[in-house]
Design a protein that fits this description.
The complex is a heterotrimer of chains A (331), B (255) and C (254). Chain A is of the alpha/beta class and 331 residues long. Helix content of chain A is 34%, strand content 24%. In chain A, strands 6-7-8-3-9-10 form a 6-stranded mixed beta sheet, with helices on both faces. A 4-stranded antiparallel beta sheet of chain A has the order 2-1-4-5, covered by helices on one side. In chain A, strands 12-11-13 form a 3-stranded antiparallel beta sheet, with helices on one face. In chain A, helix 4 (100-110) packs across helix 5, helix 4 packs parallel to helix 6 and helix 5 (119-128) runs antiparallel to helix 6 (144-156). The radius of gyration of chain A is 23 Å and the shape is elongated. Chain B has 255 residues and is mainly α. Chain B has one domain (2-254). In chain B, helix 1 crosses helix 5 (99-127) and helix 5 packs antiparallel against helix 11. Chain C has 254 residues and is mainly α. Chain C is globular and about 60 Å long. The relative contact order of chain C is 0.15. The chains are: A alpha/beta (331), B mainly alpha (255), C mainly alpha (254).
Chain lengths: 331, 255, 254
């Protein structure tokens, strides 16, 4: 038993999934998630996140590599894996004709638990996701946020060791998003392992202990959010000039202080600061000496988008447009 | 007005032809039903009072065509209801498109599909041994009645869609198609129908449509059944188109 | 084992929701076989006058066909609903359950067995009202058992198609299959009066035995000789399509 505790919650080696037409949605990924950890799986639409999750939860058979979840192989011992995982998939597919509490009961039954024995836990979960008043109503009348919350409660009814959340907040309003974040934090505090996919940087930053960044079916970076950001280096300074007539010359002036970077939207210049905030005053002085007025300035800490940009040459938001959605079509 | 109707008919037709999986059931079910009727009831042609025919297939072919055309009407209705559900319809109404053109677009598409349905059944019938007594003139008569009737059934479907506004409700009228057809002389000679079906059949336009098409197939050309068939089909077409335009007006007023 | 039964029960209850909670949606399916029976008997009543016809009354002869048709369409509807569940992602939830796949299939199919009793009951009430003679409780119980079996077989068949095509657009395929299976039998007339080609099909169509098993009580007495072929045919149909459906479920995601 002691040994069992120590092995990783999720262990993935060289996992691959090839769809019809030799499209590799997932192209040999490795990752390991420790017990009790919240692992963020970050990537744009179509990067292979959902395909990976579907393989890990036994809904899709890998075409290459291995994956063990809660100590069992997803391909060879799917029933054992299913017993130990909770899953809330992207569309939160719920039967609109059933009520919230009926669905909780059905979910318990599907996991081989007598609904009577989990009645208290069901009620507690419903309470916890804030659906007590709606529990007797048909799901057809629920809002998108309520559905996601019910889906989460259902995924937890059999006390899973590992919880998979596939883009839990996509399409939700900001309030519902915050509620779900709180719930994930609470689950982490209780020691549940959470595998969370998201296309939102902020979400990954807020929730994940560790991250894997996936692009075009491959993991391009991994580590804690802080380490990943540190890896791409120093903060940078965004500048808006009073007069943008001679932008080229202004670039030359600031180039002496750090790497020039592609300017983000709405600013004229962006420069990496090798010595952090200490560089700001000399830069402003140099610009002033050269006759440039500065209208606005902003010091920016590195973000996960910088990580993504550094690893793939693209910004995360909007990177999706160029790639087709890796729909989980079956071969 | 004409340009708009034709453009809308083209679109409706293209949508139907691009999704053969929706078109196929229109001929598939009547074909299977025709097969089982002929195979099961072949011997009934020997019943006393049954008109002299070469075979039960000759007799049943017109029934299959009528049934297929009715299903075509249901399918035109479903397509129109999907347009309403999907919002395409609102866009049309928001354009300066004449109201009649909106209805006629669908209905004209139904008449083109009706011609295809008639040709399909005549070909299938001939492959399996039916003969068309009326020759080329007979084929043209069947086509004429079939196209007018298909137009009318299409208009009926559109009218129901305009009132129901939901594809599943239009789908729900499917069983009614059978009711109306069974209480006509489409499947069996009028004089051999049991009461009260025989009474209803005498007033059922489907009886005249089916018999109008049956005459040139099974018996040879004759003016009276042809005219009766055309008249019944035209009456259905005019009445249904009128009602469809009226319910469109009603819909607009509510909106 | 108890867990399995509970799972089957819960899934069957969910299947019944479609009828219990949206009764309006169930109306066409409930009415259709009755309408079909009434229509056929209105149009073809005179066929009973053919020499060699084994019932006095065409309507009595055709009532069992309507019952089978209701079962067939209920089975097809189960497949259509499953295809919808696949489209909407609910099926994923089912597949994520650790329960054995045959147990999940039994839950899906089981509701069809219960649901098919509804169109059949409605049909019988109308038929008895119109003067079809009472076949006796034993014959009716046998008929109920047989149509439940046919509904299960049809549901397994439709499930195979739903798992294969994963879209509700496969609905006509599911319906045509059951339509052909029920009508390409001795549906309209006794075997001897069928056209040669249809007799050949009816002879190899297992549903013919099921139909004759249901019909025997309506046109005469129930005998073991007409009952065992019906049971055997159903056992075969359920075994074959059930196995294919379970295989289809196991292959999901492969």
């Amino acid at each position: 038993m002691q040994y069992h505790r120590q092995i990783a919650a999720i262990e993935v080696i060289g996992l691959e999934r090839e769809f019809k037409g030799a499209i590799k949605a997932v192209d040999g990924i490795d990752l390991e998630v420790a017990r009790g950890e919240v692992f963020g799986f970050l990537g744009p639409n179509g990067a292979g996140k959902t395909t990976t999750v579907r393989m890990l939860v036994t809904l899709l058979r890998p075409t290459g590599g291995h994956a063990r979840v809660a100590g069992f192989d997803v391909a060879d011992q799917p029933a054992e894996v299913r017993r130990r995982i909770g899953v809330a998939l992207q569309d939160a597919a719920l039967d609109p004709l059933m009520t919230g509490s009926e669905l909780i009961e059905l979910q318990a039954t599907l996991h081989g638990i007598a609904p009577r024995s989990v009645r208290a836990r069901g009620a507690e979960l419903i309470e916890r996701v804030g659906l007590s008043r709606a529990a007797g109503r048909r799901v057809g009348t629920y809002s998108g946020g309520m559905r996601r919350r019910l889906d989460l409660a259902m995924a937890l009814i059999h006390e899973p060791e590992v919880l998979f959340l596939d883009e839990p907040t996509t399409g939700l309003d900001p309030t519902s998003r915050l509620t779900l974040w709180d719930e994930v934090r609470r689950l982490r505090d209780e020691g549940t392992t959470v595998f969370l996919t998201t296309q939102y940087l902020e979400e990954a930053d807020q929730l994940a202990d560790r991250l894997g960044i996936i692009a075009a079916g491959r993991i391009v970076a991994g580590g804690t959010p802080a380490a990943l950001k540190a890896e791409v280096g120093s903060p940078h300074l965004d500048l808006v000039l009073a007069d943008r007539a001679d932008l080229e010359r202004a670039r030359e002036v600031v180039a002496a202080f750090g790497d020039h970077r592609p300017a983000s939207d709405g600013c004229h210049l962006s420069v990496g600061l090798a010595h952090g905030a200490a560089d700001i005053a000399p830069i402003l002085r140099a610009l002033d000496d050269a006759g440039f007025g500065v209208a606005e300035l902003e010091l920016k800490q590195p973000t996960l988008d910088d990580v993504f940009l550094a690893k793939t040459g693209e910004h995360l938001e909007g990177a999706a447009e160029s790639e087709p959605e890796a729909a989980p079509e079956l071969v | 007005m004409r340009a708009a109707s034709v453009a809308l008919a083209r679109r409706a037709l293209r949508n139907s032809l691009r999704r053969p999986q929706f078109l196929a059931p229109l001929v598939l079910f009547p074909t299977l039903f025709l097969a089982v009727n002929v195979g099961g009831l072949e011997q009934t042609t020997s019943l006393e009072g049954f008109p002299r025919v070469d075979g039960f297939l000759d007799f049943q072919l017109a029934a299959a065509i009528t049934q297929s055309l009715l299903l075509g009407g249901v399918s035109a209705g479903i397509a129109a209801a999907l347009d309403i559900e999907g919002g395409f319809f609102d866009r049309l109404v928001a354009c300066p498109t004449p109201r009649l053109a909106i209805v006629l677009g669908r209905v004209l598409a139904a008449s083109v599909i009706a011609a295809l349905q008639v040709v399909y059944f005549l070909v299938v019938g001939m492959i399996f041994g039916a003969s068309i007594q009326g020759g080329v003139v007979g084929v043209l008569s069947v086509l004429a009645i079939g196209i007018v009737a298909g137009t009318g059934f299409g208009a009926l479907g559109v009218m129901i869609a305009l009132r129901a506004r939901s594809a599943s409700t239009v789908q729900g009228i499917f069983p009614l198609v059978f009711v109306i057809l069974f209480v006509s002389s489409a499947f069996f000679p009028a004089n051999l129908l049991s009461s009260p079906a025989d009474v209803v059949a005498a007033y059922n336009p489907l009886s005249y449509i089916a018999e109008g098409m049956r005459q040139p197939i099974a018996f040879g050309n004759a003016l009276r059944p042809l005219l009766e068939g055309l008249a019944a089909a035209a009456a259905v077409a005019l009445a249904a188109t009128g009602l469809a335009v009226l319910s469109l007006r009603g819909r607009l007023r509510q909106a | 084992m108890r867990d399995d039964l509970r799972t089957i029960g819960a899934l069957m209850r969910r299947g019944l929701n479609e009828i219990l909670r949206v009764p309006a949606g169930a109306i066409p399916g409930v009415l259709a076989p009755t309408i079909f029976m009434l229509g056929l008997s209105a149009a073809f009543a005179e066929a009973a006058r053919l020499p060699g016809f084994s019932a006095d009354d065409f309507r009595t002869f055709i009532v069992p066909v309507g019952m089978l048709q209701g079962a067939g369409f209920t089975g097809a509807a189960t497949g259509i609903n499953l295809a919808r569940d696949i489209e909407q992602g609910w099926f994923d939830r089912l597949m994520l359950a650790p329960a054995k796949r045959p147990v999940l299939l039994a839950g899906v199919v089981g509701s069809a067995c219960l649901r098919c009793l509804l169109p059949a009951s409605f049909l019988l009430i109308v038929a008895f009202g119109l003067g079809v003679s009472w076949p006796g409780v034993g014959a009716l119980a046998l008929a109920a058992l047989l149509i439940m079996g046919l509904a299960a077989a049809a549901a397994c068949y439709a499930t195979v198609l739903a798992l294969r095509f994963r879209t509700q657009q496969a609905a006509p395929l599911m319906q045509v299959g059951t339509f052909v299976a029920v009508l390409f039998t001795t549906a309209y007339v006794p075997r001897e009066l069928l056209a040669d080609w249809l007799r050949a099909i009816a002879d190899v169509n297992p549903v013919t035995h099921v139909l004759e098993g249901v019909r025997q009580g309506f046109v005469g007495d129930v005998t073991w000789a007409a009952t065992w072929p019906a049971l055997l045919a159903l056992a075969g149909l359920v075994a074959v399509f059930g196995a294919l459906a379970v295989r289809g479920m196991r292959r999901q995601g492969f």
